[in-house]
Every structure is written in C-alpha cells, then in structure tokens.
Design brief:
With 506 residues, the chain is mainly alpha-helical. Helix content is 74%, strand content 2%. It has two domains: 11-51 and 247-272, no CATH class; 55-244 and 280-503, Up-down Bundle (Growth Hormone, Chain: A), CATH 1.20.1250.20. The protein has 21 helices and three strands. It is globular.
C-alpha cells in the first residue's frame, strides 16, 4: 500500500491530492492506511461531493440560513458602533461633562475593540470552531450592551463600549471564513457581498435609530433596545448556526470513530501535529504574521483601512457638520446617513451582477480560477474613483453651503465606492488564503479597526485647520493615491504571492 503525505496547504489542495489517480490509497469508508501502518486518516466519505457532513455539500437552504444569520449579526454590531453619534450631547449633559474628546471617542472606543478582537477570536475559531466563538461572543455582546445602558459615568460607558466592540467583532472577523467554508469560489462573491453590505450599512442605519430614540425616550433606551434585539438575534443564531470549519468537523468525526470502534488510531487528516500550547501560540500569532510578512495582505489591508478610517471620520462628524452648517435637529442629523446607505446598497446591486461572472465563466470553460480574478478593473476602478470623487463633492458642498442634497450625493458616491473595494478585497484575501481565511480576515479587521478607532479622533481638528473643502480634498487625494495598489495586485498578485514571505506556512 502506497503512502500519502498531506502538506498544510489549502483545503482544496488537500482535497485535490486525495483525488489524484496515481495515489493508490485504500479507502475504507472515511479512512485509509498511512505510512506508519498504525494511524487511520479520517476524511470525507466517498464520493466527497455527496458527503452530507461536508459543508460544501449542504443544501442551499441550510447554507443560506447560516449566511443570512451571520449577515444579520454582522449588520447589528457595526450599527451599535455609531448608534450613539446623534446623542453625544445628551450623554454629556446627563454626566454633567464638557469633554471635547468624548463625542468622537465614544465611537472610536467601540471600534478599538474591533482592532483587538480580530487578533484573538479568528485564531480561536481555527482551533475550536466557528460556532462556539459566535455563541459565546454573542452572549457577551448582549451583556456588555446592557451594562452600557446602566453606565453612570463617561469612564464606565467607554469601558463597556470597548468590551462590546471586542465581543461583537467576532462575526465581522470570522464571517467571510464561514462563507468560504460552505461556498465554492465561483459562488462566493454574492454571499460575501451580502455579508459585507451589513458591515457598511450598519453604521449608517445606527444614527437614524439613535437620533429618534434619544430624542423621544432618552439615550439609555438606545442601548436597552439594542440589547433586546441582540438577544433575539443571539437566540436565533444558537438555533440555526452549525459548525462549518472542516478541521473541526473531521476531528469530531475521528473522535466519533474512536468511540464507536474502540480504535484510538483514527486521526483527522487535517489534524495538527503540534501540542495545544504550541498550536494556540501559532494561531494567535498568525494574523500578525500574515499582516507583517505577506505583501499582498499588507497592501490590501492598508488600502482598506485608509478607506475605513475616512468612512469613520464621516460617521463621527456627520451629525456635527449638518447640525452646525444646515441647522439640523438631533433626529434630522441621524437621517443624513441614509444617502450613504443608499449608495452602499447600489454598490451591492452592482456587485451582485458583476462579482461572480468572471469566475462562473472560467468554471464553465474549465479554466483555472485565481484569487486575482476577484480584483477586476470593472469593480476596482469604479470603486476607487467613486469613493474619492464622492469625498470631494461632499467636502466642497458643505464648504460652500450648497443645498444639503449636494453633499448627500457625495456621501452616496462614497458609500458606493467603499462597498465595491471592501468586498473585492475580502473575497480576494479569502480566496488567496483559504486554509487561513479567518486569520487573514482577522488581520484585515484588526488593522482597519485600529485605524478606524484612532484616526477619526483627529477628524474635527482636520476640518478646523483646513476647512470642510480642503480637509476632505486631502482625504480624497490620499484615497486616490492608494488605488493603484489593487490594480497592481490584479495584474501581478500571483507573482507576488509566490515570493518566499507569502509562501511561509503560517
């Protein structure tokens, strides 16, 4: 009997290795004998494309139930990040404070949790599974949101806002990995687009809700209502979500076979040879290593984090700008986020039509599909141009006191461009690093969370120094200057991924 050794490459590479015709591996159900003559390697039942335990073979209804649940959770958490924006003046009055940093920091501290959580939660999902991380963090998120409602000082509110962001970021940092577990490449774009729109629209819907609730019921009721909704979503998630990560599922299968047969030699083909402590350290370090050592990850994440920072500068200053320049009320200033949301939804429609078309065409003609197919100029060029032009139009519309519709059109263009770039990068990274999709998305989420938390703190000072027009022109120029990064990756990404640093086993 010949032997088979499986390198720790992508899951699809491993699956392909098992299908090669020159590997005379004797299969007994889900097992075959390895070189040692002792270990029995556990894999999917043959034929692999019909094994119901393989998440790739789940019925469409089950797949989309999981995707929709994760998408709703990923919509709710970013919504909470900005929901208090219109109510900061009421909070300051309640705490008898005149702080000048609190209005932006109460938003930024939540996003700072977005920066810390992705360094820990995605690696844990690659050790223990996606669902257990979703469930535990979902319960914690509800608890911390309730404590925000009970806060009696700025420090207490800021502390629990941070912890809410840390717990809530699980679905944002792990969501694309869950989608990659159950959707083939050529169908992945639409699913990631649906997930991504929630992460972008959520912060735009939040102030609309927050402005109304704060004006009618008071700011504490913002958190009480959010905690009730989050609790219901968590209960639904507990009922619907099922584990999707293949190494965890195969380890469960191996454990079941050991129990049923009494043979302790059954071992998952994807099991690591490292001990728990070494494996935990390796997993926790993986997002940082990918971000620092892999140029394609670094370039992609830097571009997205700059765009994300600009978006959060907008979120933290929209209400203030429209109240000062256009005399909007607390409730009206929450409504200004609608335009950006409409632009984002328009981008989703655009993505739904164009995103998977190239991959589906290649799949029909049996041509090789590469991760770089996720960065077509048809998406990245309109996305980068629309984002920068929208910022420019918004800034000068406000500067010249043109009718409020003009800057709103600018924010709609910005939302349209952002969702195109954000989704293109997300799908590119998970296609390029399928086996570590949670970690690479965690690296992306951590960097943009850190930038989104800290850079908006200087937003008002930027506008005070340069004005609405020139301040936003500077942001537009920075965004446009970084746009060629994705164009370079689209043309030469495959070569860059083959250099030694990107070839390291993380």
């Amino acid at each position: 009997m010949s032997t088979l050794r499986f390198p720790p490459g992508s899951l699809q590479d491993i699956e392909q290795a098992g299908k090669e015709g020159n590997t005379n591996v004797e299969s007994v159900g889900a097992t075959h004998q390895l070189e040692s003559g002792v270990s029995l390697s556990v894999w999917w039942d043959e034929p692999e494309d019909q094994d119901p335990e393989n998440p790739m073979n789940w019925p469409s209804t089950k797949k989309w139930a999981n995707i929709l649940t994760i998408s709703v959770m990923s919509f709710l958490v970013p919504l909470v990040s900005s929901v208090v924006a219109p109510a900061v003046e009421l909070i300051l009055a309640d705490f008898h404070s005149s702080s000048t940093t609190f209005p932006t920091f109460v938003l930024s501290i939540f996003v700072l949790g977005f920066a810390v959580g992705p360094l820990i939660l995605p690696p844990l999902s690659e050790l223990y599974g996606r669902v257990i991380v979703y469930n535990i963090t979902g319960v914690l998120f509800v608890g911390f949101t309730i404590l925000c409602a009970l806060s009696h000082s700025e420090a207490m509110l800021l502390s629990f806002r941070f912890l809410s962001g840390f717990a809530g970021v699980a679905t944002i940092s792990i969501g694309p990995a869950s989608i990659a577990d159950i959707m083939p490449r050529e169908k992945r774009g639409k699913a990631v687009s649906l997930w991504a729109v929630g992460t972008v629209v959520g912060p735009m819907v939040g102030p609309i809700i927050g402005g109304y609730v704060a004006e009618v019921l008071g700011w504490r009721w913002i958190f009480w209502i959010i905690s009730i909704i989050a609790g219901l979503v968590t209960i639904v998630a507990l009922a619907i979500l099922r584990e999707t990560y293949p190494p965890v599922l195969l380890e469960r299968k191996a454990r079941r076979l050991r129990k049923e047969t009494g043979n302790l030699n059954y071992r998952s083909r994807l099991a690591s040879h490292l001990g728990l402590q070494a494996l935990l350290i390796q997993s926790i370090m993986r997002p940082s290593k990918m971000l620092l050592l892999c140029p394609v990850v670094t370039a992609s994440c830097v571009y997205v984090c700059v765009l994300y920072s600009i978006i959060y500068i907008f979120f933290s200053t929209f209400s203030i700008i429209f109240q000062q320049v256009y005399d909007f009320s607390t409730f009206d200033s929450g409504l200004v986020f609608i335009a950006c949301g409409i632009g984002t939804l328009s981008g989703l429609v655009y993505l739904a039509y164009f995103s998977d078309k190239t991959l589906e065409k290649r799949a029909r003609t049996a041509r090789m599909i590469t991760p770089e197919d996720r960065l077509p100029f048809l998406i990245t060029v309109p996305g980068s141009l629309s984002f920068s032009l929208g910022i420019f139009l918004y800034g000068w519309g406000v500067e010249k006191h043109i009718h409020w519709v003009v800057p709103q059109v600018g924010t709609a263009m910005t939302g349209f461009g952002y969702i195109l770039i954000f989704t293109a990068v997300q799908t590119y990274l998970i296609d390029a690093f399928e086996n570590y999709s949670a970690s690479v998305n965690g690296a992306n989420a951590a960097l943009r969370g850190l930038a989104g938390a800290l850079i908006p703190l200087s937003g008002l000072n930027l506008y005070k120094t340069l004005g609405w027009g020139w301040g936003n022109s500077l942001l537009a120029l920075i965004a446009f200057a970084l746009a060629p990064l994705l164009w370079i990756l689209a043309a030469h990404g495959a070569k860059i991924r083959r250099i030694r640093l990107c070839s390291l086993k993380f």
